Amino acid sequence: KQPSTPGLITGPVNVCEYVGPSGSLATYTVGSDPTITDYVWSLPAGATDVSGQGTAQISFRYPVGYTGGSISVTAGNGCGVSTPRVLRVSTLSPG
C-alpha cells in the first residue's frame, strides 16, 4: 500500500547558525519505517553540502541570504509516494 506521511521532522527551526559556507551543518531526521524504501527531501534552492538524500536523515547548509521558508520530506515505496511532511524554518535572531 501507499506509504503513510513521514513522522514529524526533528531538527533546528531557527537556522541562523546553519546559513552560508561557514555555517554548521543542519541535520533533520524523520522516524524510519521498514515499509518505506525512499525518502525525498525538498530543500531550499541553493542548499549546499547535502548528504543523506533518499534516507530518513539529511544534512546540509542553507544558502547565503536565506531568510526562512520550509523544508519537506515525502516517503516512497513501490506503491507510490506519501503526502509531504513539512517543517517551517526561519532565521529568527535568538532572543
Concise summary:
By secondary structure, this protein is mainly β. The protein is 0% helix and 38% strand.
Description:
The protein contains no helices and seven strands. The model has no long low-confidence stretch (mean pLDDT 94). The chain is elongated. With 95 residues, the protein is mainly β. The strands form two sheets. Strands 2, 5, 6 and 7 form a four-stranded antiparallel β-sheet that branches.
Report helical residue fraction: under 10%
Shape: elongated
Distance between the termini: 45 Å
Rg value: 14 Å
Number of strands: 7
Q: Average pLDDT across residues?
A: 94
**Class based on secondary structure composition and strand pairing:** mainly beta
Q: Spans with pLDDT under 50 lasting ≥5 residues?
A: none
- If helices are DSSP runs of H or I spanning 4 or more residues, what is the number of helices? 0
**DSSP strand content:** 35-45%
The largest sheet is: 4 strands, antiparallel
Secondary-structure element series: EEEEEEE
Task: Give a quick set of tags describing it.
95 residues; mainly beta; 4-stranded antiparallel β-sheet; 3-stranded antiparallel β-sheet; 7 strands; elongated
Secondary structure layout:
Elements: E1 26-29, E2 38-42, E3 48-51, E4 57-61, E5 68-77, E6 80-81, E7 85-90
Antiparallel strand pairs: 1-4, 2-5, 3-4, 5-6, 5-7
